[in-house]
Amino acid sequence: MSHAHAHAQTQIQTQTQIQTRSHVQAAPSRLDACLALSAASPDRALQEAQDWGRHDGGDDARLCAARALREAGRYREAAEAFDALGRGSAPPLDHRPDRTGGRMTHPGGSAAEAPGDGKASGSSAGRGDDDRAAIVAAQAAECWLLAGDGDAAEASARRGLAGAPGAVALHVLLARSLAMRGAWKDVVATLQGLEPLPDVARSRALVLRAIAWRHLDHSDKALADVETALSLSPDTVEALLERGIDHVRLGHLAAARADWDRVIVLSPDGREADLARQDEAVLDADPDQP
Fold it and tell me: Where is the composition biased (Low complexity) (predicted)?
């Protein structure tokens, strides 16, 4: 049932815990306006950022340009821009259109949703250069993941953690990149100390850790993590799919079917429901199953 694990892995998303705007030094009102415009009209925001950059907009203009690229679904260009900003280099602001035509897909085949606006759900550790670098590194890692480049995402996350080792959101992003290459032991080791995360983000991280435990043949630990995930965010279809797989591995076939039935009820026309139906068909085709 690797299709369910792959889908759950690629759909798991974390929320960056650091608020971008609170760490910017110059012209906050213009930056706020540009960031707001990037959500409503990414192309216009990119033009605004380019013009601003030609008139001493500095890092604020580059930040808005990177955000506009991300909102436009030009994830690779956005990741490169965030990385350059984090390294202190000055990327050009006249980005070419994305030749892929916008939204990209993960290896699992489903369209990746753009991450949130970077607002904090919890407090940040401080306002120094390391924290600002962590913000930008997290944005870069998220965009690399959305572009399907796990190696680049790992590099961005590790760069951010070098300056802010306690940034939990960066640990989750690192774990997601490690999962893309099947480094399951490293995923488990990375996903520790998740308590500071908001409930929804923590739930998604626990589902990823459950997937890792399952691949390491620890189905009991996988089930424990996914149960906690569902207690934090009930009726999450990715978690229900994973719990169904864990139930099967532990011989709880009726419980597995109940979870997959619930997925179909919650998302009858979604990809998750298709996966649940496929898993149930596997059970139905096995003559040894009740």
Answer: 7-20
